[in-house]
Structures are given as C-alpha cells and as structure tokens.
Design brief:
The protein is built from eleven helices and twelve strands. The strands form three sheets. A five-stranded antiparallel beta sheet has the order 2-5-4-1-3, with no helix packed on it. A five-stranded mixed beta sheet has the order 6-7-10-9-8, sandwiched between helices. By secondary structure, the protein is an alpha+beta fold.
C-alpha cells in the first residue's frame, strides 16, 4: 500500500460510496505543497487492480499507524441499554416443555407445609392479647385525631395499622403489631415524647391495674404489655418532609419508610387477600428467621415474592401451596434476585424499580446460593428437616446426605472488596510520622 499526497480532480465515478469513504478516480494529478502552506492532506490508499481508493483527510503533523490513522476521529461513546431478563421459570413456559411423566405425589409434602403453617400461626390466647392492646391504643389515637382537647404538643392527621398483624401473617411468639401515626406538625423528639405520655395517661385511666412499658426509639416509641408489643411509628405529612432538620426532628428516611409501609399495607389488602398467599408468606418468614443466608430479605420482598409465585402464571389462578413453595426456591436459585435480572417490580413506587436492587451484591449472592442448597435438599426428600418438623438444628454450611446423595455447601461467587479505610489510615499515620520528623 502506497500513500500519496494528491489532490483528486473533479471527475468522479458514479460508483462513489460516500458512507464508506471509497471513490474511484480515473484521473489524479499531483500537487506540490510548500512548508509555508497549511492545507489538509489527502491520504490515498490503493486497493487492488481496480484502483478503488479510500480517501482520508490527514492533518499535518499527525503520526500514522499501520495503514490507518492513530488519531482518527471516533464515534461518541454510547452506553449499552440495560435489558433485564427474567430467569427460567417452568410455570411460565410449561406449554413448551410437555411432561413425559405424571406429576409426583406431593401429598406428604403438602401436609408437611400445612402442619408447619399451623405450628407458626399464633395461638388464640396470643391473638386475643395483641388484638386487645391494639384496639385500646387505636381508640385513644383516633380520639386524638378527632378531638385533641387540651393536647397541643402535636396534631395527628391519620392513624393506620401496617405490618404482618394487619396482613394476617403474624408468627407465633412474635406478638408485635405496628401502627403508623401521621402528624400534621413537625415530628420533633419532644412532640413524640409528649404523645407517648398522653397515650400512657389515657390507657391508665381505662385500666389502672394494667402494666404497660413505654420505650422511645428512633422510629417513635413502643408500648409493651404482658403478652404483646405495639410499635408506634411516627410520620408526618408530605409538606413537612422538606422542613426536617436532623438535630430537631426524626430522620427523614424513617419518615419515608413509614409512608411506604402504609402503601404496602394497602396494596396487600387489595391484591393479596387469598389464604394461600398468607400461608406462603408465613412459611418464607420462618425460613428467613432460621437460615442466615435469607435474613437480608425484607418483609416487603417476601410479600411480593409470595404473591408473584402464587399468582404470576398463565392461568392467573392460585397455585397449590406445594408448587408455589418449590417455585420460590427455584426462582431464587435461578437468579431472580441477582444483578441483571428483571426481578420483581415494586408496584407501590413510580417507575420500574426492582425490589432486589436495595440488597447489596454480597446479600444477593448469599440468597441465591442458600436457595440452591435448599432446593437440592428438597429434591432429595429433606423437606421435614427443612421445615423444622424433625428435631435437630439444620446448618446449610455443613455437608449432609439425603437418600444417598451428598449435598455440599456452595462457595460464594461474589467476594466483597477490601475496604480502603485501612490503607487511608496507614497513609495518614505515615504522613503524621513524616511531619514529626520534619518538625524535629
């Protein structure tokens, strides 16, 4: 390939290809360029006997590479658009994979799930205790909304029940109910304390012999009775959220989370009223409490996961509890809550926010490998130990044998990078020592 400093004539071939920069020139005449002139140079590259030429404009002084320009103009960088993908789900594409064998008999597994749900359901005494305390507190707070009277420390806008107690998915020995109190005024720490004193005073008027313990915290305050606890979660109206000051008021992030809890409670009340969804939520909460790898899952993520596993199918009919429980582990094992997955879109937030993006990468990987180990144990008949129906504590980090099959713990695919704080501290110490030596 030979490079010339040439100037093409105005005669051009009709086969000119402007997009690729190729031209066919029947006549070329050379020109002379003096040092005083500063014209653009035309690099002509000959291609074969057809004299097909490629024209490149070259600025004076630029270095040339192997048959191309090193400093050639490049197209602007365009980031690749993110296309989330849903993991493989046999329920959604069952028609494409016809069965060659009939479904296995899951009667024993279904009975085990229902037995575990019965064990997790609060006893009538527990339900009565928590219900009585909630009704008393709700009545006092509703009265403060309608007729505050001489109470002027704060003004109440709305009182809403949220959480597992409202949804009907409360576990036994976890008699905790949550009530969100929305204030018209700014949520100062003094106002929250005054509200707790007012509530205590009104409850003691109703039953002087009842012992109630009030404890202030960063979310509001707790009312603890003999057999139940009611958490009062403080929030404020939307106009006041921008006026919050960290030194005087409660944290703004906590206020937003309490408003989100109200939206979640309303959505569950409208869309997840089926009993199978509540049973699956209770079973998944039990797994989260007993296995460390699932403890990073939030209550809202478990609610949406249970609802999607039961209702998200081509027929839009509720799936049996045994199929839905196995489907949850299959989806988590396939990477439903991993980076790049479509996951589950939050129905209570604007946009297409996926609920698993709030988890750290380490927790996403831990949830996936924990579900994979559980699914392997479930596939080989270990559901009784998995559901805690047999004595003995189960540790997924230990090797186990099920029906002659060895199930070994999986290794983490993601390792958290080392923090840079140690290096920064070492550099700071080295700088201080250097300053001391210079001063001495």
């Amino acid at each position: 390939m030979t490079t010339y400093c040439l100037e093409p004539t105005t005669r051009k071939s009709p086969e000119e290809d402007e997009r690729a920069g190729f031209f066919l020139f029947p006549v070329l005449r050379s020109i002379s360029i003096s040092r005083n002139q500063d014209p653009s140079r035309v690099a002509i590259h000959s291609f074969g006997k057809t004299r097909r030429l490629r024209i490149e404009m070259v600025q004076p002084g630029l270095m040339r590479g192997r048959g191309n320009l090193r400093n050639r103009a490049r197209l602007p960088f365009r980031p690749r658009s993110f296309l989330p993908r849903h993991p493989f789900d046999l329920i959604l594409c069952e028609s494409s994979f016809p069965r060659v064998k009939p479904l296995p008999d899951d009667t024993n597994f279904t009975n085990a799930l229902m037995q575990r749900n019965s064990d997790l359901t609060p006893k009538p005494q527990e339900q009565t205790a928590i219900l009585n305390l909630v009704n008393k507190i709700q009545a006092v707070l509703d009265n403060l909304v309608v007729a505050p009277g001489s109470f002027e420390s704060c003004q109440l806008e709305e009182v809403r029940q949220v959480g597992p107690f409202k949804e009907g998915t409360m576990l036994t020995k976890e008699n905790v109910a949550e009530i969100v109190v929305i204030l018209k005024t700014l949520p100062t720490k003094e106002a929250v304390e005054a509200l707790s004193h007012k509530l205590k005073e009104e409850l003691q008027k109703q039953d002087p012999n009842e012992f109630l313990k009030f404890t202030l915290n960063e979310q509001g305050f707790d009312v603890e009775g003999n057999a139940a606890v009611v958490r009062i979660l403080i929030a404020t109206i939307g106009l006041n959220l921008r006026k919050l000051e960290p030194d005087l008021h409660l944290d703004a992030k906590i206020m937003h989370s309490h408003h989100a809890a109200i939206r979640h409670s309303r959505w569950m009340e409208e869309n997840a009223h089926h009993s199978s969804i509540k049973v699956l939520i209770r079973l998944l909460r039990d797994l989260r409490n007993r296995f460390e790898g699932l403890q990073s899952l939030t209550q809202w993520q478990i609610d949406l996961l249970a609802h999607s596993s039961i209702m998200n199918n081509p027929s839009r009919q509720t799936l049996p509890i045994n199929i839905a429980f196995r489907r949850v582990l299959q989806l988590l094992s396939a990477g439903l809550f991993l980076p790049g997955s479509a996951g589950i879109t939050d129905p209570c937030e604007s946009g297409s926010n996926r609920v698993h993006t709030s988890l750290s990468l380490e927790n996403q990987d831990l949830i996936c490998l924990t579900a994979q180990t559980m699914l392997r144990i479930l596939a080989h008949g270990g559901y009784k130990r998995l559901l805690c129906l047999e004595p003995g504590r189960m540790n997924l980090n230990d090797m186990s044998v099920w029906d002659g099959v060895v199930v070994s713990p999986l290794e983490k695919a993601y390792e958290r990078p080392a923090d840079k704080k140690e290096d920064e501290d070492m550099e700071a110490e080295g700088g201080e020592e250097a300053m001391e030596t210079t001063e001495n």
